[in-house]
Structures are given as C-alpha cells and as structure tokens.
Amino acid sequence: MSGNxxxxxxxxxxxxxxxxxxxxxxxxxxxxxxxxAPPGVPIAELLGDLYARWPELSAWDGQIRVAVDLxxxxxxxxxxxxxxxxxMPPVQGG
Length: 94
Prior knowledge:
CATH architecture: Roll
Order of helices and strands: EHEEHEEEE
Strand order of the largest sheet: 2-1-7-4-5
Shape: globular
Number of helices: 2
CATH topology: Ubiquitin-like (UB roll)
CATH class: Alpha Beta
Distance between the termini: 53 Å
Radius of gyration: 13 Å
C-alpha cells in the first residue's frame, strides 16, 4: 500500500450518530458516514480519530456511551464496516 488517501475510495463505511450535546461538540453533525477498513477498528481507536476531527468531543471522553447496532459496547469492541455506531452523552436520572 502506498498510504495514499485515494485508497480509501473503495473502503466501506459505518454510520456514526451523535446524540444530544455531542452533536454540538461534533460541529453540529447529527450523522456522518465514516470509513472503516476491514477487518475493523476498536472503538477506542475510532474515538481517537473522531477526537482528531472534532477536538471538542474529547472533553466528553470519559463520559461517552457507545452503542453498536443498538447494543452498548466497551471500547475494545471491534467495529466492522457497515455497522451503526451511536455516541451518547451520560444520561441523567431523577
């Protein structure tokens, strides 16, 4: 591989959904398609990439809940192309 950005042209992607306050931290984005190369990427690495794109998200790092295909996952979970990733801030109860 050459490391050329054009190599990602054929790469599959996953949908990332930003909820509540995280939308603002992600520059107003509600949903983005994000390239995920097979065989996949750990959630922790994906979050690092998202923080590089939207630094304000990193302020929420210790509090973000992550769900993949409607199930909460740990940060070592491997996201595969085509999966839906939801990023949610902490939920307050009362």
